[in-house]
Amino acid sequence: MKIAVLGTGTVGQTIAGKLESLGHDVMMGTRDPKATLAREKPDGFGRPPLKEWMTGHGSVRLGTYAEAAAHGELLVNATHGVASLEALAAAGKENINDKVLLDISNPLDLSKGFPPTLTISNTDSLGEQIQRAYPKAKVVKSLNTLSAFLMVAPSLLPEAHNLFISGNDEGAKNKVKALLYSFGWKEADLIDLGDITTARGTEQWLPLWARLMGTLKTERFNLRIVQGSVPH
Amino acid sequence: MKIAVLGTGTVGQTIAGKLESLGHDVMMGTRDPKATLAREKPDGFGRPPLKEWMTGHGSVRLGTYAEAAAHGELLVNATHGVASLEALAAAGKENINDKVLLDISNPLDLSKGFPPTLTISNTDSLGEQIQRAYPKAKVVKSLNTLSAFLMVAPSLLPEAHNLFISGNDEGAKNKVKALLYSFGWKEADLIDLGDITTARGTEQWLPLWARLMGTLKTERFNLRIVQGSVPH
User: Fold this and answer.
1) What is the pTM assigned to this prediction?
2) Are A157 and B226 in contact (CB under 8 A)?
3) Fewer Cβ atoms within 10 Å of its own Cβ: the N or the C terminal residue of chain B?
4) Is A228 in contact with B121 (Cβ distance < 8 A)?
5) Residue from B35, B37, B75 nearest B55 by CA
6) Nearest CA to A78 among A162, A131, A141?
């Protein structure tokens, strides 16, 4: 499938790399491809410049947000949450159109360090804001509750764990589920929370996730919902 | 131990009943004990009047918030989060003093129905507000992440699951942990997140908890953190 991955950070690279390995035709989108490719030094997080990553992922192309969004039949928003609406505006309504938009972003404000606060929360969510801004698009929120490397390799954890899905369109959710299965997620791992307003639940998991990361001193964790239908 | 349970709702009854069964000397606190005992009809949630509950729990006494707080060497805040600061003000600074205050409340605004929003979130938490209002008290936030009946009977779920603890005082956290062990929690189940500011993490779990309850159609669930130290 032709897929656009908006955002070239850790999440974007991880998703784009996995999609490439699965045989998809992937274009990553960024604000200014020339500037992104001109970077020679690691970024503020110590990540190698994108140019290096791209040499190991020969079939993945890089374009503007608009070029990538025009390319993709399915779009993945892997930009930082605080920049997502701007990135999508640059992608353009006409390119987003009525496509499935898998939104992985979280509205994290890291400007005051760690743990982050949320720029949107409680009575709204970034998933909903994106859906409202692009009413024709089929926004599906998922994968935003765990570390990038676990998104595409859930079996790295020793037990089954859960992933949530929110969105208004059942067909779009089924397309995203099919993608998730190809990443290694199992049907029993996925919890469909309902419409896009349920993204308020998963985005507000991040404050606990961040504190767990601080306590456990690893990003290699996720939650599993333990349910008991009968007492024992 | 002499324990005060502030609040006579489901959480208060569940905690007080469990503490009684463990041999503690429990006084429940409410705003107006006479009015509470005069109720003859089920409340808005269909729960039987407290008078009925108390006939089955003969050693548990009922007093004002101030009487209960004066009685307790350890205090449990089991009031509704939106009423907690008022209840604690009625309990009185002199009665709260430097005692351990186990805070189970969540700042849930249910005035617009379900799922609730939070009246405090993101950059603050109810746990912190209580700690700031009573700086001598040793506030420990715990048990606020799951249903009342699971708080005192964790083995009702078929697998191990986790409980979080937040608070500034290590000695107070150890006292609360001892109480939790007596409820059936195991040391390996408890995750000490750090100081009271980490209550922001657990209180913001509630929005996801509420949506999971809506999806799973049960309160009989909790989360388990699945961690992987080595790939497999």
Assistant:
1) 0.96
2) yes
3) C
4) no
5) B37
6) A141
